[in-house]
Structures are given as C-alpha cells and as structure tokens.
Design brief:
The complex is a heterodimer.
Chain A: E1 11-20, E2 23-33, E3 38-43, H1 49-56, E4 64-69, E5 72-74, H2 79-84, E6 87-90, H3 102-109, H4 119-131, H5 148-161, E7 166-170, H6 178-193, E8 198-202, H7 206-212, E9 215-220, E10 223-229, H8 235-243, E11 263-273, E12 280-283, E13 286-289, E14 293-297, H9 304-312, E15 319-324, E16 327-328, H10 333-339, E17 341-344, H11 348-351, H12 359-363, H13 382-396, H14 412-423, E18 430-434, H15 442-457, E19 461-465, H16 469-475, E20 478-483, E21 486-492, H17 498-505
Parallel strand pairs in A: 3-8, 3-9, 6-7, 7-8, 14-19, 14-20, 17-18, 18-19
Antiparallel strand pairs in A: 1-2, 1-4, 4-5, 9-10, 11-12, 11-13, 11-15, 15-16, 20-21
Helix pairs in contact in A: 13-14
Chain B: H1 2-12, H2 16-51, H3 56-67, H4 71-95, H5 104-121, H6 127-156, H7 160-180, H8 214-231, H9 233-243, H10 245-250, H11 255-282, H12 293-303, H13 311-332, H14 338-353, H15 365-368
Helix pairs in contact in B: 2-14, 3-13, 4-8, 4-11, 4-12, 4-13, 5-6, 5-7, 5-11, 5-12, 6-7, 6-11, 8-9, 9-11, 12-13, 12-14
Classes of the chains: A alpha/beta, B mainly alpha.
The complex binds adenosine-5'-triphosphate and magnesium ion.
Protein name (chain A): ABC transporter ATP-binding protein
Family (chain A): Belongs to the ABC transporter superfamily.
InterPro entries (chain A): AAA+_ATPase, ABC_carbohydrate_import_ATPase, ABC_transporter-like_ATP-bd, ABC_transporter-like_CS, P-loop_NTPase
Amino acid sequence: MNAQTVPAVGVEAIGMTMRFGGFTALDDVTVKVPAGSFHALLGENGAGKSTLVKCMMGFYTPTSGDMVVNGREAVIASPKDAGALGLGMVYQHFTLVPSLTGEENLVISRENAPAVIDWGKERRDLKSFMERMPFKIPLEQPVSALAAGEKQKLEIVKQLYLGRRFLVLDEPTSVLTPGEAEEMLGLVRGMTRRGELTVLMISHKFHEVTAFADDVSVLRKGKLTGRGRVANLDRRKMAAMMIGDQAIAALDQRAPTPADAVSVLEVNAVKAKDRSGLKSIEIDGLKVKAGEIVGVAGVSGNGQKEFLEVLAGQRAREAGEIRVKNASYEATREQSRKLNVRFIPEEPLRNACAPKMTVAENIAFRTFDLDKDGKPASWISARAIRDYATSLIAQFKVKTASLSSPIQSLSGGNVQRAVLARELSGAVDLLIVSNPCFGLDFAAVAEIRARIMKARNGGAAVLLMSEDLDELLELSDRILVMSDGQLVYETPIAQADLHVIGEHMAGKH
Amino acid sequence: MTDIAAPASAVLSPPRAPLALAWLARRAEGVVIPLGALLAGMALFSVFLLLLGKSPSTFLELMWRGGFGSWFSIQNALLRATPLIFAALCVALPARLGLTVIGGEGAIVLGGVAAAAFGHWLGNAPSVIVLAAMAAAGMVAGGLWIGAVGALRHYRAVNETISSLLMAYIAIALMNHLVEGPLRDPASLNKPSTHPLTEAARVGPIPGMDVHWGLVVALLACVACWLLIEKTRWGFAARVAGGNVRAAQIQGLAVGPLIVGFCALSGALAGLAGMFEVAAVQGSANASLAAGYGYAGILVAFLARQNPLGVVPVAFLLGGIAAAGGLIQRRMGLPDATILVLQGMLFIVVLMSETLYGRFKCFDPDRWKRAP
Ligand SMILES: Nc1ncnc2c1ncn2[C@@H]1O[C@H](COP(=O)(O)OP(=O)(O)OP(=O)(O)O)[C@@H](O)[C@H]1O
Ligand SMILES: [Mg+2]
C-alpha cells in the first residue's frame, strides 16, 4: 500500500478477439502499455474500446487473445483476478456509495475489510496513505457532498488504495469541467512520470490526448487502425485513423431568425424543489422563439437537470406556468404530439430508455400507439416496429448487433444515437436538449450539432442545456446562465464574453 | 456514409438456419431454468422427508397418483388450478409494470363475499343475470382492493408489496366480519356462512367433466392478458413504465392511470377467482375462501416468469400437487402442513433461480448465430 515502493505495472493485450454471436466487436487487437506510460485509446462510438478494456479486466472472456502482465503471461478470468495483479478500472459513472464518507468508501471497498472495523487505526493508516498521494480530497465528508471532480479523484484514489498500479480510465473527464479535468489528468500524469502508475485512458477529446498521453492506439470497427507516439501525431492524423476518409458533417449556415418569429416556449414563474428537496429552482420569463437556439450554461448541479425534469413532466412543479405555442403545457403525450415537442435528456439510458427492452422497441417509444397513417391505434404491430427501427437505424447510423438486442448492450454513443433517431424524426417545433454530445466521438458530435442547427433553421425552437461552453457558443443565438436554480444572466451570442459568462456561472454577481 | 451503415445491415439479416437455433436457445432458458428449479425444490423436499424418516419415492408416487395419474385426479388438479390461474395473473400483470403485488388473497376473499351477497340478493332472477351480477360484483370488489394498492403506490409512494400484504389481512378480517355478522345465514351454526346460493346462482360443470366453467374463463383470461401485454398499446406502455419510469414519463405516458388500471384489472381477476369458488365450489361464502390460493398464485406467477400463458401449465402442476395433498397426508401419516413446506421450499428455490438467467452461455441466442 505504499505508493513509492510499489512500482507501476506494465500490461499487454495480445491478439484480442471478441465476438458477440455473429458480431465481431474486437478483431485481433494488440495493445502494449509499458509500465509507467500514459496510453490513450481512441476510436469512434462502437469501435470496441470499452469491449477491449472489459476483456483486459476480466469482465468479458475474450473469444481469443492473451494477457501479459509485467512481462509474464497472466490468466484473467474475472475482475478479481485483475485486481490481484494490480489492474483496476475507473468507470465513466461513479461507483462510490454517496451516503458514506470517503474514508468509509475506501475501507469497505477493500477485499479483506475486517468484520469489525477499528476506525481509529484505519483513519491513521488512511492519513499516512493520503500524505503520499498527490490528490487532496476531504475524506470526512459524505461522497454526495463532493463535486464531480473530487468524486472522480476519489475513484482513482480508491483504486490506488486497493493497490492497483495499472488503471483503465474509461472517458474519465466527461462528467468534469475543463478545469477539473485538467487538474485530475495532470496529477495522474505526474504519477506515471514518477513510475508509480500506468494508465490506459479511453477518450474522445483530442486535446486531452495531446496534452497528457505518451502513446496512442486507435480502434475502428473492432480493428486496430493505428498507433504511435503522440508527439509524432497531430489531431488530423489521429482523426484520419479513427474514421478514415469519411466526411465530417458540416454545420449549416445560421439562417437569420425572422424578426416576427413567435415565441414557442414560455416559462413563467415556475418553481420546483431541487434534487435535495431543500432548495428550489425558480425560472421566470424564459422565452424561446421559433428558429432560435437558446443555450443555457451553468456548472453541473445548479438546477439544469431539475429544470428539464419539470419541463418533461418528470418532476412536479409547485407554481408557475409553461406555455407552448400559446397553450398551457403539462407534458402529456397528446400535447407533446400535437405541439411537436421533443426531449433529449442527458444520460439517455437512464432517462429515456428502458434498458432491457430491445433497440427496436426503444426506438418505437414515441410512435408505438399510432398506425401507418398516424392515427391512434390500440393494437401494436411488431412488424411495423421493426421496419420503423430498421429505417431509422440506417438513417442515424446506429451500430447494433441486431434489432432485438437489449438497448443496454449498445455502446454509450450508440444509445445516444438511437434516442436522437427517435426524437429527431418527423416535424419538430420545440426541441429541449441536454448535453446531447456527452460521450460521442468527434464525427458524431459534428453530426448531431448539424442536426440541431438544421432543426433550428427549419423553424424549430431549441432550448439547449449544456455544460460545454464551446458547444453553446457554436450553436446558440442567445446564452442564458443558470446558477443556484435561477437564470441569472442573458446575452446575445454576438456580445457573448466568455469571461463574463464564467463569472456568472461561478455565482460571482 | 454507406461505409458505416453497411455492417449494421449485414448483421441485421443473418442466415436463416442458425436463427432457428438462436430462437430455440432464447426460448429454452425460460423453460429449463424453472424446471430445474422445480426439480431442485423436490430434491430439497426429499431430504426433508428423509430426515422425517419417510420415503421420498412413496411421496412421489402418491403425488403422481393423487395429482395426475388418473382422469379423476387430473380433474381434481384442474379444479384447484382454476383459482391459482386467476391469482397468478393478479401477480403477473402488475409485475410487468415493475410492481410486486402479493396480496391477491385479499381480492379473492372480498370477490367471493361480494359475489355471495349479490347471489343471495338476486337469487330468484334468471341465471344469466345473477351470474353476471355476481361476476361483476366480485370483479369490482377485487378491482377496487388491488386498484387501491396501485393508487397508494403511485400517488403516495407506499410500497405495494407491503400494502397489498397488509390489505389482504384487512380483507380477511372484513370477510370474517361480514360472514359472521351482517351477511350471516342464521342457519349456519358450526361454520358461519352466507346464505346458500340458489340453483340459479350456481356455476355448473363443463359437460363431460367435474370441472366447472371457471376453468374456461381462467384460460380465456390468460390469453386476453397475454394479448393485452404483448400486443396492445397499453401493454407496451406498461412495459415501458416497468422498464424505466423516467423514460415513460418523458414520453408523456400516463404512468399513474397505467399503474392503477393494471392493478385494478389484476384485482378484478382475483375477484373472479373468489366468485367461482363461491358459485361453483362452496355454494356460499365462508372462512374457507381464505384457502391460500392467493399466496400459492405468487409461486405460480414466479415459476411462469410472469408470463400469462406460462401460468397455465404451472398452475396445473401446482394444482396437482395440492390435489395429492390429502392422499399423501392420509397414506404417509404426514401433517397437513407438509404440502405447505413443499410449496415454501419450491418458492425459495424458484426465487433463487431468478438470478441464474443470463448465466448460462448455451442460452445466449447470439452464440448460435454463426459469423457470416
Ligand atoms: N454484450 C454485448 N452484446 C452484444 N453486442 C455488444 C455487447 N457489448 C458491446 N457490444 C457491441 O460491440 C460494439 C463495441 O462496443 P463498445 O462498447 O466496445 O464501443 P466503444 O468503443 O466503447 O464505444 P463508445 O465510444 O460509444 O463508448 C458495439 O457495436 C456494441 O453494440
Ligand atoms: Mg464505451
């Protein structure tokens, strides 16, 4: 358990192949990560990155392939075996118990946690352990009180505490602000430089790869399509390895919003409890006109999620009124259908899909109760559902083993695409989107932004909530800032000043 | 562009022959695992018998003879299967919405009492009218009872498992109160009962059988429930809500009415079970209505993996076991509760077997689809 004395672990995955039935998710991939290096794994959505690391960590048994740990062949049949060899993984989502403190989380995660815990002793041990760590995290607080960046650091510390010296980070920064991401990766980078840790990081962000990684491997459709020293590669070369010579969707020219555009969405004096039940969100006087994109910026956890839930009918509102096209809107199915309102919430698997239902059924959620002519129908047709899904899957390039796979077996990016396919087809008058590009590869990001812009130019009103300022600056006509449950600042895009927006986000006004 | 779409469409149309195998593998899991669980439960029960110094083979033989071995015992099994089917549907329907309702017993009991009351009241009207009124009364009583469980769950966030169980106790107490009080036939001395039903209020046997028409209604109810869940918009919506409430809400599906509606329907079916027990078996309502069919129905539904069609064979099987109970008790000198021990063991093993789904590679349909 001593960070200085336990050296980093080197890992090689050799000739990894993974088939899910007739579908080859991974085809003879070899990746070598020497001890003390920082290796990046790039690839478009569904390329097989998560599958590769799951094979390495013993979550999946590969169809064929070998693992070499510290120069010796190793059998890794389960995550437990991987842990014993010093291999650990940090997931995109948090795995800590929110109601327990950091200390408690660390101690109970230990394989040999004693039946009766001597907390005094554990605290002293932890203190001396933390002194050797570059990460500084308040361990006495419940995890739920920590910011996203601190939680992610704690996840890494937990792995180090468990004696892991080879870490897989699967899109570790997608839940962090740019500042948090920079800090966390910098610290990890420091540990690899000192030979205390080896890192294999899956990422969709080129700038992270360029800034922190030594080497990079690129997957495409399950095959290794390139690798090299990051120093010898630029963004363009890496992109070419990822997607070949495929064209990137271009953003349409922003059509001017007509001066007489009607406001489609109006939110008046809406009040609702936030997640903790202790604070409220209060949104007043928000208007979104046809043919404009209104961006809502804000640090995660300032009420954006709750606001979307209120709009979507997932959270009760205590007061106020929501109007769509001048009619009172309660988010019923009939209203959403008549008024052409669509929602694309963040974390689609958790918020907009039934994970165990099939891909085809999930794509049918919006239309299953309509017949061919769009009239309400009592009987559903499995055939119509399949045909509809087949065409949307082709149109939106959703990669799935089959129509009847459960949607939870899709890669993160492909779940997102399936939901987009469902919500962006047909006429849209009001689109309410939250972090739509979360976890998507750069080509998909370009494509989805292009689709949102197209919807806007087609006359849809778009409310875009995003934690990615670049995205907001690229797409919005106006930017609002949400802080502490309220809209605190508004600026047209032409006058948008990053510095001022940032200050409002931080609640400095 | 076509570049990326190609692999998707390629895997969407795999060769035909392996598809049959894949289909078989997918279906087999839902049959093999419950069957294995049943066998394991039987084995466990055999150990129990050995500890008591009784012979498991005699037990099995008697069970066969008493439950399935002759036309007589098969009819006996079917007779007992009828209320089990209704009770199991009362578990299986809410289960598709993600609810675990275990209080079907309450709906059976109240359905029986309501039917008996209407049967007595309308006793001299034409049979069709009396029976229709009795069925409606039983269904309304059961439907209100379990519907209330659903409403408590959705609008007041009361756990449906606990509330349905507690409400079953209330229902039984209510039945006792009614049967011993306002609805009691003064002539029933030893066993307080409602007034005996007139001929017009009785349900007769299916021609050529000793089993009453309730069995036919139960079978029709299974088919109807299957169609409802698999083929109608309401069933689809229920599956969405059961799979992820947040997804159902964001699609604007009316989750509250769905939950209350499905619960009320399941309660109505359990109420029908009570109506047939009264009208076809007992002839009046009394404490025998609380015979535990509601609880055995939970076992049936879980063994059938909450599939309304699967409920039928499983109910027959457990009906047979129950039918053999008397014979086993007499011949082997075992107490009444032995069959309950068997049921309990089966239930635990079946619940444990739920964790086995997806664990066996041979049931993975993808495994049987060869790479093109
Ligand atoms: N258990 C499974 N069963 C069937 N197919 C699967 C399974 N797991 C993954 N796949 C398929 O394998 C492919 C690779 O998935 P994987 O999750 O490795 O992609 P990824 O590179 O991590 O993508 P993303 O960037 O979107 O996370 C996908 O097309 C996915 O549908
Ligand atoms: Mg992934």
